[in-house]
Design brief:
Radius of gyration of chain B: 13 Å
CATH architecture of the largest domain in chain A: 3-Layer(aba) Sandwich
Number of helices of chain A: 10
Chains: A alpha/beta (277), B alpha/beta (120), C alpha/beta (285)
Number of strands of chain B: 5
Distance between the termini of chain B: 35 Å
Oligomer: heterotrimer
Number of helices of chain B: 3
Structural class of chain B: alpha/beta
Structural class of chain A: alpha/beta
Number of domains of chain B: 1
Order of helices and strands of chain A: EHEEHEEHEEHEHEHEHEHHH
Strand content of chain B: 15-25%
Strand order of the largest sheet of chain A: 3-6-7-2-8-1-9-10-11
Low-confidence stretches of chain A: none
Order of helices and strands of chain B: EEEHEHEH
Helix content of chain A: 25-40%
CATH superfamily of the largest domain in chain A: P-loop containing nucleotide triphosphate hydrolases
Low-confidence stretches of chain B: none
CATH superfamily of chain B: Dinitrogenase iron-molybdenum cofactor biosynthesis domain
Largest sheet of chain B: 5 strands, mixed
């Protein structure tokens, strides 16, 4: 079973929920798809590094000797990644989308494709928990290849920590999910952005449920009220206390030290399992 | 010689565009014929690589001089490859910039910013 | 006009809350929300009059004519973005995944593929005594950098003699952040005292420096972990980054925000801390 954890608004607790959820499930896999700012690995003191792999995409390489100056490649490229002056094209790799079109249109075979690094994926193991982290190189435009490589490590019950928002990187991260956990906080910002990702998971027809994090004021029911309008109930509510915040801030897995919270995360898994079956 | 500028409107009293890649119009002045031609920048709506495409357009128009406020490093690579010399624009009309250039009053544009949409 | 951009690296550190407070405290008449994936500034700085609302187009995307399609799958084989679906002997395009590269149109032997305009978001400008520019990116979209540039362009086009503008940025270090950095005089980085916050702060500092943008740091909710707050303070010193101040965790903040009220209108520990920060920003500028 693959459970994706997403939020819409940043900072509501995706990583907090996904790392602790993975921690309470035996033999599970934690996958960090927030490859721009991966933080999950901070919570697991992973010492045995199983493997680190570079993730590549393909970019064109031009053989000037074979180039006849026809400019078909430059005219074809929709992204302006090729410019032409003098007698051969010049590539701007950072705007290249790796579509392979220039190689196809070249009449002389002057263009071949070569690998270009976009980031890395690290796989670690702590006890029976497998931890997969993707890291995008700074300045790199697309996180998709790194996210896909992370997702290729899905094994057993997998918890997928998604990027914030509902843009293409989030969409890519939920493609293999059997269930989506939508994490929010009881603020107008949290509610506003929550509605956007509800749209996304409904479009993908993936079953979903809600977790409210950082709950302080019992009179604040803005999220519960919204969830009711969808005919659903909130799965779990996680309280905010300065103590919890302090521990999480220093990279602790709260489900290790706090048995009530540990039970809460176990109940989250039970509720999800019930809903799916 | 052809001199180009990125402009806000299609007349010589126009102010120049503060940017280059997504400028709406390019003015191309031909010093031999005295002609002023305005063209719509094909890169004005580009989602990426706008600097590259705009620079390519000017290279293809056989422009030799560009008067502009700022340029990204990608556009510069294309302009240099196409032997286009770049000068820093002044806060005035297209007409005034042209006059200032002909009187040798404009300085060469030497500092360039990294491309703002993708960077290595 | 001087321009301040508020960034964070990590999401949820308080960019929008702090931006809305600074707008009132510094009497800023021009502001924008460049967190186009999840814009929130309008919930606090409620705009009144819409001056402009326009669709925003991404790349043209592929469209397959089912009458002409023979289901040969050449488009499917050559698409690098998983955007072609094969069903019932015909091929069709997944509009959300299509990147507009034109390779499918190139390889189709039946001329069954063309490319059409695609709306990926909406830009809005609100104008009365103040100017507010914002946008929303439709879900699943990927053309965020250019939309951010549009939001900024809309702001600048509608400003006149305002001396200062502030832009609420997006989390992360990707396209929307990179696009927002252009032409900025000061990037104010709002962080939180967590290991995640510090790790992300380093990456956003690196990103900002790639574009030679001056940066300054604020630690929000600093008392949630004073040890890490000190570590961040030491980091900013060692990197010669101006430290603007810190803000304590304050329950009054979410109370104000949840009533759509800017912190500048509330007197509490957090708002008093922001007032001090405001003076330091004035000095820096």
């Amino acid at each position: 079973m693959n459970i994706a954890v997403l939020s819409g608004k940043g900072g509501t607790g995706k990583t907090f929920i996904s790392t602790n959820l993975a921690n309470t499930i035996p033999n599970s896999t934690y996958l960090d798809c927030d490859v721009e700012e991966p933080n999950g690995r901070i919570f697991f003191n992973a010492k045995d590094e199983m493997k680190t792999e570079t993730v590549y995409r393909m970019i064109p390489s031009i053989d000037k000797d074979k180039c006849n100056g026809c400019r078909a490649c430059t005219e074809f490229c929709q992204f302006s990644a090729l410019a032409f002056f003098g007698d051969s094209p010049m590539l701007f790799p950072e705007v290249c989308h790796s579509c392979g079109g220039c190689e196809k249109v070249c009449p002389t075979g002057a263009i071949t494709e070569v690998k270009s690094s976009v980031g890395i994926v690290e796989v670690n193991k702590v006890a029976d928990l497998k931890i997969v982290s993707g890291l995008l190189n700074i300045g790199e435009a697309s996180s998709i290849p790194v996210i896909n490589r992370v997702l290729s490590e899905i094994e057993n019950t997998s918890i997928i920590d998604c990027p914030p928002g509902s843009a293409c990187s989030t969409m890519e991260s939920i493609k293999k999910a059997d269930y989506c956990v939508l994490v929010t906080e009881p603020t107008i910002f949290g509610l506003h952005n929550l509605k956007m990702i509800v749209e996304l998971v409904q479009l993908f027809k993936i079953p979903f449920g809600f977790v409210i994090n950082k709950v302080e004021d019992p009179n604040n029911t803005m999220i519960e009220d919204y969830v009711k309008t969808l005919g659903k109930e909130v799965l779990i509510k996680v309280p905010f206390t300065k103590e919890i915040a302090n521990k999480v801030a220093s990279g602790m897995l709260i489900s290790d030290s706090d048995s009530d919270l540990r039970d809460l995360f176990k109940s989250l898994l039970n509720k999800i399992t019930e809903e799916i079956s | 010689m052809k001199i180009a500028m990125a402009t806000l409107e299609e007349n010589m009293e126009t102010k120049l565009d503060q940017t280059f890649g997504r400028a709406v119009y390019f003015l191309i002045h031909d010093t031999e014929t005295g002609e002023n031609k305005f063209m719509i920048n094909p890169a004005k709506d580009a989602t990426g690589g706008a600097g590259i495409k705009s620079a390519q357009t000017l290279v293809d128009e056989k422009v030799e001089t560009l008067i502009v406020f700022r340029l990204g490093t990608n556009a510069v690579k294309v302009l240099e490859g196409g032997n286009v010399k770049c000068f820093r624009a002044i806060e005035d009309t297209a007409e005034a910039n042209l006059k200032a250039f002909k009187e040798g009053k404009l300085t060469k544009l030497e500092d360039f910013h990294p491309g703002y949409h993708h960077v290595k | 006009m001087k321009k301040i951009l508020v960034l964070s690296g990590k999401g949820g550190t308080g960019k929008t809350t702090i931006t809305s407070a600074l707008i009132d405290l510094m009497d800023i008449q021009a502001f924008a929300d460049c967190d186009i994936d999840a814009p929130n500034l309008h919930l606090i700085e409620a705009p009144k009059k819409i001056a402009k609302k326009e669709p925003f187009y991404g790349m043209d995307i592929a469209k397959i004519d089912p009458e002409k399609c023979i289901g040969c799958g050449k488009c499917y084989d050559s698409c690098r973005f998983d955007s072609i679906k094969k069903e019932d002997g015909k091929c069709s395009v997944d509009e959300l995944a299509c990147e507009g590269c034109f390779v499918c149109e190139l390889v189709c032997p039946q001329d069954a593929i063309s490319h059409v305009k695609n709306i990926v978001g909406t830009t809005q400008v609100f104008k009365d005594e103040k100017v507010f520019s914002t946008a929303i990116l439709n879900m699943g979209s990927g053309n965020s950098g250019k939309l951010v540039s549009e939001v900024k362009k809309n702001l600048y086009e509608n400003t006149d003699k305002q001396p200062l503008a502030i832009i609420d940025g997006s989390p992360g270090i990707g396209c929307p952040v990179i696009a927002s950095l252009s032409g900025i005089d000061l990037a104010v980085l709002v962080t939180e005292p967590t290991l995640s916050g510090l790790s992300d702060l380093r990456r956003i500092v690196d990103t900002s420096r790639t574009f030679k943008t001056p940066v300054a740091i604020i630690i929000n909710k600093y008392d949630l972990n004073e040890e890490i707050a000190d570590e961040i303070r030491r980091y900013s010193e060692s990197e010669n980054i101006p430290y603007l101040g810190n803000i304590p965790y304050d329950k009054e903040v979410s109370k104000a925000i949840n009533n759509n009220i800017s912190l500048s209108k509330v007197d509490c520990e957090a708002s008093r801390a922001i007032i001090k920060i405001k003076s330091r920003i004035d000095e820096l500028l």
